[in-house]
Specification:
By secondary structure, this protein is mostly helical. The protein is built from 24 helices and four strands. Helix 11 runs parallel beside helix 13 and helix 17 runs antiparallel to helix 18. The chain has a four-stranded parallel beta sheet.
Length: 523
């Protein structure tokens, strides 16, 4: 029996899988094999699974999982939060989900169902899912480019002069130019690849059609030369639009062509290329027509049109608006409170914009200029600690100051993971999800922390974050030094203490109530 545990990023599920493997070995269940994956890897691994176990926050993916025809369970919240391997194994063996004592009102159930359906539509939309998966796949390129940029421009006295004299700076700059400096080309490949894989279509044809169209879109009418600036951050939106529109068009056309079992005289690999010829030709022809129409409208290229209209409008709404940034983060927290992965849902809409803004900041850093965009992918790491709800301080309180045995146990499980922004044990073990006692701090502590941070940045007391695409598990204080220097790192230390103070009265009330319940049960 092959068992697949799925969570958002494959991190918290890995912790549960490790415990399940130990218990499977101890219970001599030799027929059970268990592994984990991130939600965006589901298409790759689900076909091998006999049983799929979904993390509670991914319950909206249940219907999609059933299309692979395994047995599907949404894990019980407390079992997932406490990493209760035995409970999960027993559920698989019995084939039935354990009934819980959770008290959910009819209104709460109706609201959860509505939000889950909405989240499912957003996350499973083929366009959004292709962009999201493509951006995840390009992460190695962005991280390497950020490291090259950081090493080439460390703000240390004498360092810049030294690497310039030795010729190392030009090599580090080359590393940046060929990674982040070509980010739009990489995104074209990964997004169109994701679209083809999601539809089980011709991957090579989808990628080639998108690349050809993108290069056409970036040729300037004034001199007929490819605008190399569009290969980097400036062309991100053009890359996304070209990848989605042309790859989906190619896949649709390719699916309409009758697939004969054999074309006389042609090898199998040549047949595949021949069948891609007509869809590719149509995509290329439409790209040429698009270029012509855009030039007739007075723009030098489709890429220039997109940069001056679509990109500016979207970035203006999401990128320069503190209120929209805080509002969207508030929505993500509310979704999480109802057990839905708010980061995945909201991130599917905002990540492309924030990536573009981050790349502009990195480009400014590369030129030894201050960051230009206050909103970017690195901003949340300046004040979010421990995961959604900024729960690292709560994990410390639970681990070291709780009198309740349950809360202390959850805290000690959560604290090591919380340092690396994994807080499912707190979310589902305390629980925080649907716990009205913790609603206010869970939603408003990140909101207040974000508002304070942005206010200090606007006042010039704190620097803007650069927006380096660091792994999301990078611990606080480290992120502060990298994204903004010692002032931002110091602010993170202060904010951790402030957040502990904000969490404390709610933690104390919860701990007192749980301790009283435990004493009552022991009598």
């Amino acid at each position: 029996m092959n068992i697949l545990v799925v969570c958002a990023a494959g991190m918290s599920s890995s912790a549960l899988v490790a415990k399940m493997r130990n218990r499977i070995a101890e219970r001599n269940l030799e027929n059970m094999k268990v592994g984990s994956c991130a939600s965006f890897e589901l298409d790759t691994y689900a076909i091998q699974a006999d049983v799929i176990l979904l993390a509670p926050q991914l319950s909206f993916m249940e219907e999609k999982c059933r299309t692979f025809q395994p047995q599907v369970f949404v894990l019980e919240k407390e079992a997932y939060g406490l990493l209760d391997a035995d409970s999960v194994i027993d559920m698989i063996l019995s084939g039935e989900k354990k009934k819980t004592s959770e008290e959910i009102t009819h209104k709460q159930h109706a609201l959860m169902e509505f939000l889950q359906n909405l989240a499912g539509k957003v996350r499973t939309n083929p366009v959004i899912s292709s962009i999201t998966r493509g951006m995840t796949m390009v992460l190695p390129v962005t991280v390497c480019g950020a490291l090259f940029s950081l090493v080439a421009n460390l703000p240390v006295n004498g360092y810049t002069e030294l690497i310039e004299k030795t010729g190392l700076k030009s090599l580090f700059t080359l590393g940046y130019d060929m990674t982040l400096g070509m980010i739009s080309v990489y995104l074209i490949c990964t997004i169109s690849f994701s679209a083809a894989r999601g539809r089980r279509g011709n991957t090579a044809g989808a990628v080639l059609s998108s690349l050809a169209g993108f290069f056409m879109f970036a040729v300037r009418s004034s001199d007929g030369v490819l605008d190399l600036s569009m290969m980097g951050p400036s062309g991100v939106f053009t890359a996304m639009i070209a990848a989605v529109s042309l790859s989906f068009l190619f896949l649709k056309l390719h699916a309409l062509i009758p697939k004969n079992e054999n074309i006389k005289g042609l090898p199998e690999n040549v047949q595949a290329s021949f069948l891609s010829l007509i869809p590719f030709l149509i995509c290329a022809s439409l790209s040429v027509v698009t270029v012509l129409l855009v030039r007739l409208c007075g723009f030098s290229s489709p890429a220039a049109l997109i940069e001056s209209t679509v990109q500016k409008v979207i970035a203006g709404f999401l990128g320069n608006s503190v209120s929209s940034y805080l509002g969207l983060n508030l929505v993500a927290s509310i979704l999480w409170f109802f057990g839905i992965h708010g980061g995945n849902v909201i991130g599917a809409l905002t990540d492309p914009v924030y990536l573009s803004l981050s790349l502009e900041n990195i480009r400014a850093f590369q030129a030894q200029q201050p960051p230009v965009n206050i909103i970017n992918n690195g901003l949340s790491s300046a004040y979010y600690f421990g995961g959604i709800g900024s729960t690292l301080s709560l994990a410390v309180l639970c681990a070291f100051f709780a009198k309740s045995q349950k809360i202390r146990t959850v805290g000690r499980i959560s604290l090591p993971m919380g340092i690396f922004f994994i807080n499912e044990p707190l979310l589902f073990g305390l629980p925080i999800i649907l716990n009205m006692q913790l609603l206010i701090p869970f939603i408003f502590i990140p909101f207040v922390s974000g508002a304070l941070t942005l206010t200090l940045m606007k006042a010039g007391i704190l620097p803007y974050t650069i927006g380096f695409p660091l792994p999301w598990t990078t611990p606080p204080i480290v992120t502060g030094f990298i994204q903004g220097g010692w002032r931002l790192a110091l602010w993170q230390v202060i904010l951790l203490v402030l957040q502990a103070g904000m969490w404390y009265p709610f933690f104390k009330a919860m701990d007192k109530e749980e301790e009283k319940s435990e004493k009552g049960d022991s009598l």
